[in-house]
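Run folding on both entries below.
>entry_1
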Amino acid sequence: MLVGTSHADDAGIFLLEEGLALVATLDFFTPVVDDPYLYGAVAAANSLSDVYAMGGEPLFALAIAAFPNDSKLLPFLSDVMAGAVDKAKEAGICIIGGHTIQDKEPKFGLSVTGRVHPEKIWSNRGAKAGDLIVLTKPLGTGVATTGIKWGIVTKETENIVIESMMRLNAAAARAGREAGIHTATDVTGFGLLGHLIEVLEGSGLCAEIRHSEIPVFPGVRELLKRKMSPALVDGPRFPGVQWIHRRFGIPPVPRSARENIAHQQAKVRLPPLLPEEEILLLADPQTSGGLLMFVPEERADVLRKALASAGQPSWWIGRAHPTVSPEMPRITVV
């Protein structure tokens, strides 16, 4: 075993023979969009991401599904699988089997096996002082998917967010391999701050990131100004319901975003006047988020060109620094 559970890395890695190691990962979740085909595609892209985040290439996958034994809902499982199969084909692999159980709430994902050269593994604890920090997808999927469930997202924002969640991290990973980066992770449930902290703590570093350079999906900041009462979202409309939403509602912030920042804030120095909404976006749990890559400055131009050549958007959000005292915050946001 080359990588196990001790450092909360994105996947496990097992040495098969000299020059070849297997990457293994599993991920599944409840629906984040209404369309079952898109749900399957997003779940597959999310599961594949962990292989790319380790510097590997996927080989094959197994499907894992939990679905209600309901004659009205069960047919949708074939649409979920179709979305996953098409996304697997895009990644150049097959889904060769899997397992399904009955459950009250749908859940779906993949167990993915990939390969990587043992000397070219990207861990989440190999960053070096001076490395530039690169992010390959905007933030805000947690807020957006909550807004989708509440029916308050514009079609434009919904389409942009779903397209991003469906987009494989394969092109970004290829660019990273071409540039010879050594450390990466993908931004998922712990948000940007949480996954960045994992890398910095594992590497014994701190970092400075520029708030103005951190990308957010169009329309997400506007969503944070909307307020809804979740208990009334699916209820009947009646006179005064909009007043109740405005008076007693809450913005579409996932509960886990607040839980994330509660655990992370002690390790982060934030600008004193940074609005709460902006802080929550930094901790927003991402579904099928982008890669967070660390590249030495002398390889930065190679990575920039490789990302641009692949048509892969990227944002250069900060730099890693040595930790000079135990009291230093892991992350300083400027």
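>entry_2
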Amino acid sequence: MCLILVAWQVHPHYPLVLAANRDEFYRRPAAPAQWWPGTEGILAGRDLEAGGTWLGVTRQGAFAALTNFRDPASHRADAPSRGQLVPQILDRTSSPAARLARLQAEGPRYNGFNLLWAEAGQLHVYESVPARTRLLGPGIYGLSNHLLDTPWPKVEQAKSRLAAALGALPEEQGLLALLRDDAPASDEQLPRTGVSLVWERLLSSAFICAPEYGTRCSSLLTISGAGAVRFREQTWDAQGRLAGEVQHPFKLA
């Protein structure tokens, strides 16, 4: 993912509300969200090049979502795919403590990343660049290609729009609209992350549609206090047009 918004234990009826965009090169093949075979129950899209994913949820309501940390100067071409990290942290064949220890031990092998995940009523973030794990309390959080809640314009604007959209739930139009916002930030608001000014402009909007690269899918995940889970994913083509949609409602196991 390149933009993840989470309302954690804020809404009285929806303890989890997540809205996220995945940005990637159009040439990189991917499959829409579905239940993965051969697992204990992970619902996720799949990167068909490296086999991992960017966002997944289990039948028990655990979820994980990943963003890359943008730092071109530190990029290593031989590093393993970060998409492995989501299924690894959701793998219930080992204990949560063992999975966290593995993440902390193996994090330096990967290019920079941030991993948000929730399990057993706790929300965590692991930020690989400072190599730290934090337990997060109730609140609204935004994550792009820097550290959690770094005040990039699209993160701040999307957090505000998420807060405003919560009151309309279960109506999802406000959540979908914030993910489809393609307005760029002004030049004076742009971060400096090591890419060209042209790319800083292109990457500054919540929804990206650039030559060869852009927002490939938008995902909504809500879990109600009654245990009803709704996962909705929209996919986009290279012209920014809706190319498909899947919905996977289910009850917590």
